[in-house]
Structures are given as structure tokens and as C-alpha cells.
Amino acid sequence: VCSSCGHVEHLFGSGGGARMAADYAVALLGELPLDVRIREDVDGGTPTVIAEPGSKRAAAYFSMARRAAARLSVLNKDYSRAFPKITVEAS
User: Fold this and answer.
1) I need a surface site. Which of 33, 46, 55, 84 has the fewest CB within 10 A?
2) Of 26 and 9, which is predicted with more confidence?
3) Is residue 32 part of a domain?
């Protein structure tokens, strides 16, 4: 994303994430632009969603977080690994 005019240039092409998600039969949660301000926020130790909560960049993070939460909320819960296997034998 151009820091002067906001023009989006797809340096590595576009649609690769969607193709990969389709190949692996998983949901595409979202896409983040290559944006110098995200790098500056990270380098400064402040997440973009805190540094600029009203920005389009933060909105992309929030959108992906909501999609991830929605996907996780409908998964079947498997507690089988949470507890050891118990075997009862007749004596």
C-alpha cells in the first residue's frame, strides 16, 4: 500500500491465499496488505489495532479475528486428549 496515495499494488500477485485455502479445504480468514505502517507499529511494540483502532488495517485484523472466533465456536469439542485413558479390569 502506497503511503502517499493509498494505492494497493499486489507485489506477489493476488488470490494466492484463496487458492491455497481452497487447495487445503480450509477457510480463508482474511488478507493483510503489505503496509509500512503495520511494520512501524510492530517495530514500535504497539499492535496496529491499538495504535490505529479506526484504520482500515485494524479493521482487517478485527475482521479476521471475528472470522476465526466464529469458525472455532462451531467446532466439535474433543476432550479425549484432556484426560488419561482409564481401563477398568475385573479382578
Assistant:
1) 84
2) 26
3) yes
Q: Which domain does 49 fall in, by range?
A: 16-73
> Rg of the chain's alpha carbons, rounded to an integer?
21
Q: Residue 68 contacts by C-beta under 8 Å, 6 or more apart in sequence?
A: 29
Q: pLDDT digits over 53-67, tens only? A: 999 999 999 999 999
Length of the chain equals 91
Q: Which residue has the higher pLDDT, 91 or 71?
A: 71
Average pLDDT value for residue range 24-49: 90
